[in-house]
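Database export, one record per block. Field names are fixed; values are copied verbatim from the stored entry.
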Amino acid sequence: MLMISPTLTIPDEELVERFVRASGPGGQNVNKVATAVELRFDAAASPSLPEAVRERLLARRDRRIGADGVIVISAQRFRTQERNRQDARERLAALIQAVLVPPKPRIATRPTRASKERRLEAKKGRAQIKRGRGSQWSSDS
């Protein structure tokens, strides 16, 4: 059972773990033991996720989320299989927690009259500076 929040959990039956050989340092052990973990979670077909959370999760632009709605997380940071397994589960939980709270809708506002005037004054000041950079010395000679 993967705890996402006090109200949301994902049963182990929905998580598919595959153990593969990790790349990188590790000496002779790296060629013998499959310590890296590839965790798969089908978010599109999961009955555990509320519909709103599923939509926000699948709408994210994340390379770990495939077009078919399957989230693939590979963990090979640690030298033991159990620690990599725990790391992959923590990263999946963090990914889902990021979309649990819906984003606040943006309220359109208009610029104030004073801010418009400040902007125009700043533009005039910049224009004056640039006008002053002209070829002053060529007209004197």
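Remark 1: The chain has a mean pLDDT of 85.
Remark 2: The longest strand covers residues 36-42.
End of record.
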